[in-house]
Amino acid sequence: MAEPMLETRALTRRFGGLRAVNNVSLTFEVGVVHAILGPNGAGKTTVINLLSGDLPPTSGTIRFRGRDITARPVQRRVRMGIGRSYQKTNILPELTCLDNCRLGALSRLPGGLARIRPSRAARRQVQARAEHALALCGLEARADTIAATLSHGEKRQLEIGMMMATEPTLLLLDEPLAGMGQEESRRVTELLRRLAADHTMILIEHDMDAVFAIAERITVMVNGAVLETGSVEQIRASATVREAYLGEEAEP
Amino acid sequence: MMSRALSPTVVLPLLFVVVAVGLALYPLVGETFYVRLMAKIIVLGILAMSLDLLVGYTGLVSLGHAAFSGAAGYITATLILKAGVTDMALLLPASLAVSALLALVIGWISVRTSGIYFIMITLALGQMTYLFFHDVSYWGGTDGISVWDKPVLAVGGWTLLELSDRMVFYYTAWACLVAVYVGLWLLMRAPFGQIVRGVRINPGRTQALGHDVHRHQLAVFVIAGTIAGLAGFLEVARSGFMSPAHLGWHESAMVLIIVILGGMGTLVGPVIGALTLVLLEDWVADLTSHWKLIIGLFVIAVVLFLPNGLVSLLTRGAGPSWLRGRRATPAEAQAEGGDDG
Amino acid sequence: MDYTYYLIQAMNGIQYGFLLFLVASGLTLVFGIMGIVNLAHGAFYMVGAYLAYWLAGATGNFFLGVAVGVPIGVVLGLVIERLGFVHLYHRDHLLQVLFTFGMILVIGELITILWGDDVHGVSVPAMLAGSVALTDTQAYPVYRLFISAACIATAGGLLALIRYTRLGMMIRASASNREMVELMGVDVNRLNMAVFGLGVGLAAFAGMIAAPVNSVHPTMGDDILIMSFVVVVVGGVGSIQGAFWGAMLIGLADTFGAVFLPEAAGVVVYALMALVLVWRPSGLFAAR
């Protein structure tokens, strides 16, 4: 088997006495859309925070393409190719959409003098990346719109565009469809499906239609621990999962 | 009111050109007393611009900024007085190096914190620097240091600049003001400045887009401290005097007032703020010996009625929106972010 | 220099620490509950000292002066809160800093107008004027012991107030979750006034009882303000417990710094603060 994109070993995070994430060992294969499901408080967002570096784990390790990144700060992980989007819209409201994406694109610029006097080529490249990311998330018509004035759904799209501007290979998506109407949901699901073609994804989402539409593997978490991991069919068929979680939602 | 077609990105540089040309022409018409006052305003304007870089552009409210200009001033004055050095090619780099180094140390400790902590820590570390120059007798105690010799720039026997000449000093300081403005304006337009803007608006998100927030904050802190050092050097070259009061937190707070009064995040605003405050002080001090009372009331009035500064009267909302109204309560911020399903 | 000398220094350090605690606890409460950075807090300490100077002279009795002065100080504080601070709730810290700095200038200048620029002294009340002999040659002034005792009593009262009263309950709830308290229907205006009045009262009281050992002058508010800021930063913003231990640490460090490193006395405290912050960026007892 090829080297996995991301691998966790006995990952644990405590908040005081609570084990929000308990001994989670997961493997995320290259090119696969891997969804994490579970009831509220199962520790899904905490897992994303541990993978992105927003939170340090209490114990356990994280390996990205074979390299141990457990102690690496957020920005280094981003530059290695791990992008994330947030559950609560997290953009720079007073900037234009293009400038929001440009900030992501700038992370690909080398440090030092290049950030003060970039070459013409580098400038063009940043601009092209930002425009490309904006086009990817479907907001090219909104390039010069101040982000604060976007509709909720558009802000969620921008959220994804900003992440894409950092040119990630692995996408950590924390409820990308949160708070969206049906039409918006459909559009963003379509966008995710397109991105799935050439990116690895770890996806948290409550919208089961969307999950079943794009996910290839599913992990179900309960109380901070992994209940079961398998293909979509396996999880759908799993009695344990039905009992613990899907039961309520899957039955009419 | 200006028409809407004039965006701040056009108005602000234009305004600086007007101010700079005005300052350049003033000595041709003004009385000696006011020319001296203008020289003071130029030096203070450089100091205030450097603080604007921190406060207005990076969102770091420092209450210890005078420490950097003061430390550089002390180095300049001490080198002149105790070592007899007047060569500007030595004095200027030495004082800039000291202020940069001090900013690196204080910045390294301070940028690890944010908000109220950052304010308190820069205040305390600035005060520590004040006490260092105040308590250690080598630096001349409360009375400070007075020097009669002024820096001279000479290359191979050719005297280029003699700062003891009031007009030479005036235009040297003026050139520094213009150079600092242009330098900072370019810097803030460069990718570095765009990242710094992101750091101010949303540090968490900027980090999640691959940028090292602390390193950018520290870089800005050092740049601002070094420019403050330039102002400190010029201050000694102007007045021949440096005392602990130049480093005290009242001085830092006054520079902060200047930045707000003029309009933060605009670069030209701080220069206009320095002009306004120095002229006001001069006028009020003539009226009453209790001029501090008037200045205090003025400061309160600025905070209550003109938090975006004088420049905003011209540009309508050029200032950062986060100062404009109330801070959003967490509940509102959440509503802004949408519900989370 | 035998150990008695160090004992005396330690007692001085602790006494200073207690004074710092009274001032810093108000500073930390006003920030923790009201969300306001109050640079003018040191000015209330100074106002207290001047009230003690004025009232002790006018009434001829120091204690009567304190008894009359504390309410005057509190009323003054509440007037300022109603007139000025109400405009600062939910505003940016930067504006709060500048507004309260403006107030420092105004209060300082008003004091100069009323009492002049000179350094004044307040005499130790006769009944506390003596000293306690520690050895044949060294003695400790009774009045300093009185300061510590008065501070302990006040601190005890403050802690009891916070722990056992309804106001204290609201203060604790408000420190950990302000929005929650607002939503619960507590009259935030009155809570703010109570907290602010309490803070001013503590600072003014500290200024009064310290007046006989320190001189009374127009920059005294600044000195105590900066030290209190250091205490709050070291202890952790918003934490009363932190303010207490921070105050003790800083009081002792300042006193012994002056003993061992007279030339760099002022720097010791700040170096200590920097060390604490490198170790714990949000203070020893961070509220959150």
Q: Characterize the overall form of chain C.
A: globular
Mean pLDDT of chain C: 85
Distance between the termini of chain B: 45 Å
Secondary-structure element sequence of chain B?
A: HHHHHEEEHHHHEHHHHHH
Q: What gross morphology of chain B would you assign?
A: globular
Subcellular location (chain C): Cell membrane
Main location (chain C): membrane
Family (chain C): Belongs to the binding-protein-dependent transport system permease family. LivHM subfamily.
Membrane topology (chain C): Multi-pass membrane protein
Describe the structure.
The complex is a heterotrimer of chains A (252), B (341) and C (288). By secondary structure, chain A is α/β, with parallel strands linked by helices. In chain A, 38% of the residues lie in helices and 23% in strands. Chain B has a two-stranded antiparallel sheet. In chain B, strands 2-3 form a two-stranded antiparallel ribbon. Chain B has one domain (8-325): Orthogonal Bundle (ABC transporter involved in vitamin B12 uptake, BtuC). In chain B, strand 2 and strand 3 (158-162) form a beta hairpin. Chain B is 72% helix and 4% strand. In chain C, 73% of the residues lie in helices and 2% in strands. Chain C is mainly alpha-helical and 288 residues long. Chain C has one domain (3-279): ABC transporter involved in vitamin B12 uptake, BtuC (Orthogonal Bundle). The chains are: A alpha/beta (252), B mainly alpha (341), C mainly alpha (288). Chains in contact: A-B, B-C. The interface between A and B is large, with 43 and 29 residues.
Compact description:
The complex is a heterotrimer of chains A (252), B (341) and C (288). In chain B, 72% of the residues lie in helices and 4% in strands. Chain B has 341 residues and is mainly alpha-helical.
Question: What characteristics describe this protein?
Answer:
heterotrimer, B: 341 residues, mainly alpha, ABC transporter involved in vitamin B12 uptake, BtuC, two-stranded antiparallel sheet, disordered N terminus, C: 288 residues, 2 strands, globular, ATP hydrolysis activity (chain A), ABC_transporter-like_ATP-bd (chain A), transport (chain A), P-loop_NTPase (chain A), AAA+_ATPase (chain A)
Layout: helices, strands, pairs:
The complex is a heterotrimer of chains A (252), B (341) and C (288).
Chain A: E1 6-15, E2 18-24, E3 27-28, E4 33-37, H1 44-52, E5 59-64, E6 67-68, H2 74-80, E7 82-85, H3 97-105, H4 120-136, H5 152-165, E8 170-174, H6 182-196, E9 200-204, H7 208-214, E10 217-222, E11 225-231, H8 232-237, H9 239-250
Parallel strand pairs in A: 4-9, 4-10, 7-8, 8-9
Antiparallel strand pairs in A: 1-2, 1-3, 1-5, 5-6, 10-11
Helix pairs in contact in A: 3-4, 3-5, 4-5
Chain B: H1 8-29, H2 32-58, H3 66-83, H4 88-110, H5 115-135, E1 145-146, E2 152-155, E3 158-162, H6 166-189, H7 191-201, H8 203-208, H9 213-239, E4 241-242, H10 249-262, H11 268-287, H12 291-305, H13 311-315, H14 321-324, H15 330-337
Antiparallel strand pairs in B: 1-4, 2-3
Chain C: H1 3-34, H2 41-59, H3 62-83, H4 93-115, E1 131-133, E2 139-141, H5 142-164, H6 166-176, H7 178-183, H8 188-210, H9 220-235, H10 240-260, H11 265-279
Antiparallel strand pairs in C: 1-2
Helix pairs in contact in C: 1-5, 1-8, 1-9, 1-10, 2-3, 2-4, 2-8, 2-9, 3-8, 5-6, 5-8, 9-10, 9-11, 10-11
